[in-house]
Request: fold
Amino acid sequence: MIFTLISFFLTLGILITFHELGHYWVARYCGVKILRFSLGFGRILIKRVDRHGTEWALSAIPLGGYVKMLDENVGDAATLRKDSFQSQSVGRRFAIVAAGPVFNLLLAVLFYAFLNFAGTQEPAAILGTPTPQSAAAKAGLVAGDRITAINDQAIQSWSELRWELLQSDTEARSVELTIDHLGTSLSRQLELPRVQDPSKEDPLRSAGLTLGGSTPKIRSVVADSVGAKAGLLTGDTITRVANIDHPDINIFISTVQQYPDQDLPLQIEREGSLISVTLIPASFKLDSGQVVGRIGVQLGGDIPMVNVRYGPIDSILRGMTRTVETAWFSLKMMGKMVVGEVSWKNISGPVTIADYAGQSARIGWTAYLSFLALVSVSLGVLNLLPIPMLDGGHLLYYLIEIVRGSPPSPRWAEIGQRVGISLLGGLMALALFNDLMRIFT
Reply:
């Protein structure tokens, strides 16, 4: 719990600070006087005043931040100072407000570019056994096929495969896969099934795509089980099952399930030697009524990994592309929620973000940076939405001012503020409700 909270507040601190620094730096460039830069809201805990007269503060509620600028409410409202925010041209005010979310998007570019340049170890895009009658099976894909490109977009890892298919799932129902099948390059057409609620159903698994390529190793053997009586030991590597050489974990499990109460020959490797054994999997009845075989062992495996790394220029370009694609993907998912094609249950709140922050930090720094990049994009996109009270709402007012030559009337601004508060309040309540439902259900 403590580690999760530390990871969560570190995430908020990094993303909020960079967001507010965007407002701060552009405002300073435009000559606006900054009165206070606060990380957090509410009661000020720590503060320091710099040589420019700006108060840098850490406040009690760490769920946001703000940059307080000199405006018409300070001093004589009838005579605006040249260094006040309201005295700036509409173009400069637009730039100052837009800088926050834009800086979040730039931060995501930097994170993605750094990960591309530093290189990451990721599972290779090798398929496991497709689910019978699935889209993958109908496309002619088999276990061991390695995906090398999707719609002519080259990929190396399973995460790249997942991302490209998720992108395709929002646009087209059919994708062209280039695969390496036993050393031969082939083309396959995959028809993607529609997934209504990604929070409950994995789009890749729905298409019959599972990660494969891992050699099954026995991690533990249940006492008095079929495997224990056959002499299987922890550390044994399965090299053959039935008539299948070098099966992956998925193939091994599916084969064992097909042999309830039947002789099943195995070949295992133990300390460099090959040993042949024959066992009879015990029958087990599933909830669906299907009877499958079980042998009472826990499996692990060494998944083939690839080092995904790019040069400095390519890393930056890929960082920019990934940020734009993620932002556009977020907007498309929001649109699908509005029209009812995607469930509103996919909206997450602070509890889920904290949970993911802790999980990604435990995995390692690469996973945590990827998480930071994703949340930074989400924060940038959310703040650009044309909702009053958000940066995007202010930008909408400035666009109206540019078009009609004057800002909206105070009455319309007040109505917009009330609407914005209602929308944000409802969105926050829904996000928190979804968080609690994930915990209790």
Q: What stands out?
A: The first strand starts at residue 34 and ends at 49. The mean pLDDT is 86. The two ends are 20 Å apart (CA to CA). The chain has twelve helices and 16 strands.
